[in-house]
Specification:
Pfam families: Mur_ligase, Mur_ligase_C, Mur_ligase_M. It comes from freshwater metagenome. Keywords: ATP-binding, Cell cycle, Cell division, Cell shape, Cell wall biogenesis/degradation, Cytoplasm, Ligase, Nucleotide-binding, Peptidoglycan synthesis. One of its GO terms (molecular function) is UDP-N-acetylmuramoyl-tripeptide-D-alanyl-D-alanine ligase activity. The structure is a single chain. The protein is α/β, with parallel strands linked by helices. It folds into 3 domains: about 90 residues, Udp-n-acetylmuramoylalanyl-d-glutamate--2,6- Diaminopimelate Ligase, Chain: A, domain 1, CATH 3.40.1390.10; about 210 residues, Mur-like, catalytic domain (UDP-N-acetylmuramoyl-L-alanine:D-glutamate ligase); about 140 residues, Alpha-Beta Complex (Protein-Tyrosine Phosphatase, Chain A). The chain is built from 16 helices and 22 strands. The strands form 4 sheets. It has a 9-stranded mixed beta sheet with strand order 9-10-8-11-12-13-14-15-16, with helices on both faces. A 6-stranded mixed beta sheet has the order 17-18-22-19-20-21, with helices on both faces. The protein has a 5-stranded mixed beta sheet with strand order 2-7-6-5-4. Helix 5 links the parallel strand 9 and strand 10.
Length: about 475
């Protein structure tokens, strides 16, 4: 973050500074954190009340680690200055908004906001790889995309930052509008309207409306970069200029001739100027081509050389840990660990990738866990995934956990299988079964929401047992 005095921060947060007479002159020279374990000398600690514990309990710990001050909603016993505010989380957003405005006063910083039901993190990582080749770039780690994570990411920018990539996650109506008001993106990227969080948002139409808040937030000077293959995104109103990517014939940034093998995914990239070239990703999955197209569109519109875009994308070894992460054991068994997150759309895409890889003659095994946050749609969507596994001719299905049992039941009821689906209550039982049935050449996909913890099962499968 840029260096700011506690007096300036207090004014930006509309708070009250409590501390010694000269507290307002003290400088925050480090990072902004909501986790006291990450505090280092010069940091500012936001004592945010959480779901499990209250950050106010850790103000003394933050002080010991070198925090300059704490932002609180009630004063606590500590000797460092405290900035009293009505809402610590809202104050975090206020500070991010203020810092961005200060940076923009003296720099040509470009802010890219990304939202979509799937693909945000991969697209963000692709953009980080490309844009960092031409200038200082800030992009969030993991999935820092909510009312806490997004401001924390924004606050890592300084006067030298040329590109800031912000993930805008949906937490309900108004959530993306709130984050967009903080970031005020120059570019808004709309990737996909799908079934992720559909149980919380009242159906896919509700999801589309929330995602569309980013399009509405863009001004006439902004740029809307949308998925031309998604009808919901095509219908989103915006005041900004529009640029499209996808496989649709009218997409300015278009992919054709998609090809997939165990080494990665390739496609013919068509640029708006009529030129085309082959791009080969080391990342598995045809669905990642759409993410690559979005990244190409953003970077090209920012003036990045197309040769730089291509080389950066082709050099990426994976999207992110536990996202279509491919590792091949010394005995030739390939493990695709995609268990960081799961929705019906992303699970279907991962299964399609597995089925395509199986056409090489290798046996395919899908280990699936629960897809969370589907609400009233959970039964229907888990059942549907089980049936899709059968229709894709996946050789073996292993379902883990009671929340995913309907995947197993759906596969069994599809009628074209006889015992190829196994269900286990526990991860340990599933791991033991899979270890015992693997043979050289197998390709194993592990897919679930993070809460199902199958990503650790995927890691365990990499260890070859005698």
């Amino acid at each position: 973050m840029i260096k700011l005095s506690l007096g300036e921060i207090t004014q930006a947060l509309h708070g009250q500074l409590h501390g010694p007479d000269d507290a307002g002159e003290q400088l925050v020279t480090g990072t902004v954190e909501t986790d006291s374990r990450l505090i280092a000398t010069g940091a500012l600690f936001f004592a945010r009340p959480g779901e499990v514990t209250d950050g106010h309990l850790f103000v003394p710990s933050a002080q010991e680690k070198g925090a300059v001050a704490a932002v609180v909603d009630h004063l606590v016993e500590a000797t460092i200055p405290q900035i009293l505010v009505a809402d610590v989380t809202a104050a975090l957003g206020d500070l991010a908004k203020y810092v961005l405005a200060r940076i923009r006063e003296v720099s040509e910083l470009k802010v890219i906001g990304i939202t979509g039901s799937n693909g945000k993190t991969t697209t963000k990582n692709m953009l980080r790889e490309i844009l960092s080749k031409v200038g200082p770039t800030i992009a969030p780690i993991e999935s820092y995309n909510n009312e806490v994570g997004a401001p924390i990411s924004i606050l890592k920018a300084d006067f030298e930052t040329k590109f800031l990539v912000v993930e805008l996650g949906a937490g309900g109506p108004g959530s993306i509008a709130y984050l967009a008001d903080i970031a005020k993106p120059d570019f808004g990227v709309l990737l996909k309207v799908g079934l992720a969080h559909v149980g919380e948002f009242g159906g896919i139409e509700g999801t589309a409306k929330i995602k569309g808040e980013l399009a509405l937030a863009l001004t006439a000077d902004g740029l809307f970069i949308g998925n031309a293959d998604d009808g919901y995104i095509r219908d989103m109103p915006t005041a900004a200029k529009q640029v499209w990517f996808g496989t649709a014939p009218d997409a300015g940034y278009r992919a054709t001739d998609l090809q997939l093998n165990i080494a990665g995914t390739s496609f013919e990239m068509h640029w708006p100027t009529g030129e085309s070239e082959r791009i080969t990703l080391r990342i598995l999955g045809e669905h990642h081509v759409m993410n690559a197209l979005a990244a190409c569109a953003v970077a090209d519109q920012l003036g990045v050389a197309r040769s730089t875009i291509k080389s950066a994308l082709e050099a990426m070894p994976l999207a992110e840990r536990w996202r279509m992460q491919l590792d091949t054991r010394e005995d030739g068994i390939s493990i695709i660990n995609d268990a960081y997150n799961a929705s019906p759309d992303s699970t279907k895409a991962a299964l399609q990738t597995l089925a395509q890889l199986g056409k090489s003659g290798r046996r395919t095994i899908a280990i699936l866990g629960e897809m969370a946050e589907l609400g009233a749609f959970s039964r229907e969507q888990h059942d549907a995934i089980g049936r899709i596994v059968v229709r894709l001719n996946i050789d073996q299905l292993v379902v883990v956990g009671s929340g995913a049992k309907l995947i197993h039941m759906g596969a069994e009821q599809e009628g074209s299988w006889g015992g190829e689906s196994k269900y286990f209550d526990s991860i340990a039982e599933a791991l033991a079964y899979v270890r015992g049935m693997l043979v050289a050449g197998d390709i194993v996909l592990v897919k679930s929401s993070k809460s199902a913890n199958l990503r650790h099962l995927g890691d365990d499968l990499l260890e070859v047992k005698p």
